[in-house]
Amino acid sequence: MLTVSTVNVNGLRAAAKKGFVEWLGATDADVVCLQETRAEHEQLPASVREPEGWHTLLAPSSDRGRSGVAIYSRDAPENSRIGFDSGEFDDSGRYAEIELRDVVIASLYLPSGDVGTPRQDEKERFMEGFLPYLVELRARAEAANKDVLVCGDWNIAHQEIDLKNWKNNRKSAGFLPEERAWLSRVFDEAGYVDVVRRQYPEGPGPYSWWSYRGKAFDNDSGWRIDYHVATEELAVRAQDARIERAPSYDKRWSDHAPVTVSYDL
C-alpha cells in the first residue's frame, strides 16, 4: 500500500506551532504534499525542514512569504523537479514533483484568483500553461511504466456538490464556469481522475477547506478544493479516501484538512 496525504498548511511555521509536527509524527502516510508553506529553508526548524524518517523537497516562492509547496517522502525519490517549465511560475512555489519507483507524485498550489483583478489573470495564465504539462507528464510517466498523482490545493470547486453555498458563489473565484470547465478538461481531455469524488460520488463534499470566518467550520459550510488527481491506472487502486477533519475548531492547525488516500500498488 502507498498512502499519500495532501494539505494546505496556511503557513508552515504557524502550523508547526499549532499541531502539524505532531500530526506528521503520527501519520501513516508514505508521502505528504504541502501547499502554502510561505517559508524559506532557513526559516524552518529542523523538525520541519528535515524531520527524522523523511526525505524533503522544499520549493519556496521567490516572492518571500507567499505560496510555497513541499513534499515529504519516506523513501528517497529517484528524481525530483520544481516547476513545470513555464517560465513565469517556475520559481513561484506552486509546483514540485518527485519520482518514486512506481509513481510520480506532485504537490500543486494553483493560484486562488480574485475576480476582476490581476490575480485572476495570473490564475488563468497558470491554468493555460499547466494543462499541456499534465498531458506531457502523463505521456512521460506511461513511457516509464509509472502512474501519476497530482495532489494539492487546486483552488477550484468542480461541481455544485463541492461547496456548501454554491448558489451564492457562482460569480466567485474558485467556482467560475470557466474554471470548472478547465478542471473538466483535466479529467476528460488529459485523462485524469478525481480520486476522492470517485470514492464519494454523491456528495455533498466531503469538504476540505472552511473559512475561519463565522461558524463555517462548525456548520460544515466548506469547499472541496484539495484533490488527489491521478491517472486511471492508479485511481482504480484507491482503497481508502478520507478527510482528516479536526474534531473541533480549536484543534485546527490550518483552515484546510489533510486529504489522505491509500493506493494498492
UniProtKB/TrEMBL annotation:
One biological process term in Gene Ontology: DNA repair
Database matches in InterPro entries: AP_endonuc_1, Endo/exonu/phosph_ase_sf, Endo/exonuclease/phosphatase, ExoIII-like
Annotated Endonuclease/exonuclease/phosphatase domain residues: 6-256
GO molecular function: double-stranded DNA 3'-5' DNA exonuclease activity; metal ion binding
Site entry (Transition state stabilizer), positions: N155
Residues the record marks as site: Important for catalytic activity: D226
Keywords tagged on the record: Hydrolase, Magnesium, Manganese, Metal-binding
Enzyme Commission no: 3.1.11.2
Enzyme class: hydrolase
Family: Belongs to the DNA repair enzymes AP/ExoA family.
Record NCBIfam families: exoDNase_III, xth
Protein name per its UniProtKB record: Exodeoxyribonuclease-3
